[in-house]
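Help needed: design a sequence for this.
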């Protein structure tokens, strides 16, 4: 079976992926294909047929097979699209940023052989995947929308649109696109994607049920490992680090060295006070890769333990990793904005994040980051609408709850601050090695609610509402959105 699948792929299958989930999808074949021997490339194609993620070795084998094929058939536009999208996936899934220019070159060769306007859907999907890997979500949406006009019933087109809408923060379109996708394809990858979206929106019970379905239906090791990582993430969200670590352990048994599982397990181990093991996993997750998000988590763990010298070295790795990713064309403004807000220059954070917002990046993460940067820059009144927007889209995210609570505390809205900071700690008391202790200190400083029952408390809220600040003119955020 693997030989036959590779046979089909060798003449013009496309890896049409959405990189957030690491999915490759098989596309139509051309006549008279060769019959290479089965091996890692065949397994990559088998995974592609199911829309499942492939391992680094499988992607490397598929890339090598396509490059060999194209040396003698340079006008095969579909194979150029396969090659380009595989390079883009390898970059996004394994932080191989040097693969991004190669992806772009291959996709442009595909378009030269068959322009997009003449029906090169495969190259359009590859370009959308490449733009998503670079966190250029507006371009990702434009390419996916072009592909949709050509192939409206291909489920991977809707998958590409979903990833773009999530990056932009168009959550109404996320919902409608997910419905269309699941109507076209109900396999395990569709369920895994739905579970991730439910998790983002705070629908934890739905997310858990759907994630278990995806795990049960998963077949290949990489696909099953991805489902186990998702189940671990959901346990982490519930504040259950031991259960989360167990899921990550199982994923790593299937795919040793899985970078996402290593970093996630490090988070859980730190919450269990197994810090030596946590640092081991953070270092393994970054070995041979420039992943600034992992370096930032590691640095904050060092700082929380008072290991200032090690923290400083790790913060330097954050900037070096971000620069390396940016050299491959990856937009690092959100990551750098978060870094500057907490560990650098808050004014610089506001500048970076405001520019991102004005470019159209209105995701819940972007709203939370900008609100927090504004608070850190001493502009709490302007920060509140962004914090409200983030929590409207994801009301159970403990980081968003904590950030909003601190903004409200700065504005003298002590009842709302107590409610939101308390919620962060109830949802996950381990949500951040640096910020969770600060959240507990803030709750102690806020003290108990006023006595006198609901009437007195309601009066306090009304007074806070009159003195509150909806942040007029705050770059398009709906006033009062998600005020809770």
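Sure. Designed sequence:
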């Amino acid at each position: 079976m693997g030989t036959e699948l590779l046979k089909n792929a060798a003449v013009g299958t496309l890896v049409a992926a959405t990189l957030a989930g690491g999915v490759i999808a098989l596309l139509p074949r051309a006549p008279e294909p060769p019959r290479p021997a089965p091996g890692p490339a065949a397994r990559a194609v088998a995974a592609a047929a199911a829309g499942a993620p492939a391992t680094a070795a499988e992607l490397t084998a598929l890339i090598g097979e396509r490059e060999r094929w194209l040396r003698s058939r340079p006008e095969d536009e579909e194979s150029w699209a396969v090659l380009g999208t595989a390079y883009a996936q390898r970059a996004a899934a394994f932080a191989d940023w040097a693969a991004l220019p190669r992806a772009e070159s291959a996709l442009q060769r595909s378009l030269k052989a068959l322009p997009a306007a003449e029906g090169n859907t495969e190259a359009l999907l590859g370009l959308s995947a490449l733009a998503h890997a670079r966190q250029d979500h507006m371009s990702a949406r434009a390419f996916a929308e072009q592909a949709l006009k050509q192939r409206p019933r291909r489920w991977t087109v809707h998958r590409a649109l979903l990833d773009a809408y999530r990056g932009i923060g168009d959550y109404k379109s996320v919902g409608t696109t997910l419905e269309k996708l699941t109507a076209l394809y109900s396999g395990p990858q569709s369920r895994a994607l739905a579970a991730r979206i439910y998790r983002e929106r705070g629908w934890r019970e739905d997310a858990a049920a759907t994630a278990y379905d995806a795990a049960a239906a998963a077949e290949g090791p990489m696909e099953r490992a991805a489902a186990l990582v998702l189940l671990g993430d959901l346990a982490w969200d519930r504040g259950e680090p031991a259960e989360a670590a167990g899921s990550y352990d199982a994923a790593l048994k299937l795919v040793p060295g899985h970078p996402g599982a290593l970093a996630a397990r490090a988070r859980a181990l730190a919450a269990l006070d197994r810090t030596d093991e946590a640092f081991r996993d953070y270092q393994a997750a970054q070995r041979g890769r420039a992943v600034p998000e992992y370096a930032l988590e590691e640095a904050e763990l060092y700082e929380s333990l008072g290991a200032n010298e090690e923290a400083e070295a790790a913060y330097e790795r954050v900037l070096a990793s971000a620069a390396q990713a940016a050299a491959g064309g990856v937009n690092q403004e959100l990551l750098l904005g978060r870094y500057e807000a907490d560990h650098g220059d808050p004014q610089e954070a506001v500048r970076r994040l405001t520019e991102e917002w004005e470019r159209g990046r209105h995701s819940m993460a972007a709203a939370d980051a900008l609100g927090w940067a504004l608070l850190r820059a001493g502009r709490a009144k302007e920060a509140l609408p962004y914090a409200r927007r983030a929590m409207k889209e994801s009301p159970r995210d403990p980081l968003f709850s904590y950030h909003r609570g601190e903004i409200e505390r700065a504005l003298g809205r002590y009842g709302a601050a107590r409610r939101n900071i308390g919620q962060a700690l109830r949802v996950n008391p381990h949500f951040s090695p640096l910020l969770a202790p600060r959240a507990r200190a803030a709750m102690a400083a806020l003290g108990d609610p006023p006595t006198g029952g609901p009437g007195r408390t309601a009066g306090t809220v009304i007074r806070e509402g009159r003195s509150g600040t909806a942040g007029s003119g705050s770059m398009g955020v709906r006033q009062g959105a998600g005020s809770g």
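The chain has a mean pLDDT of 86.
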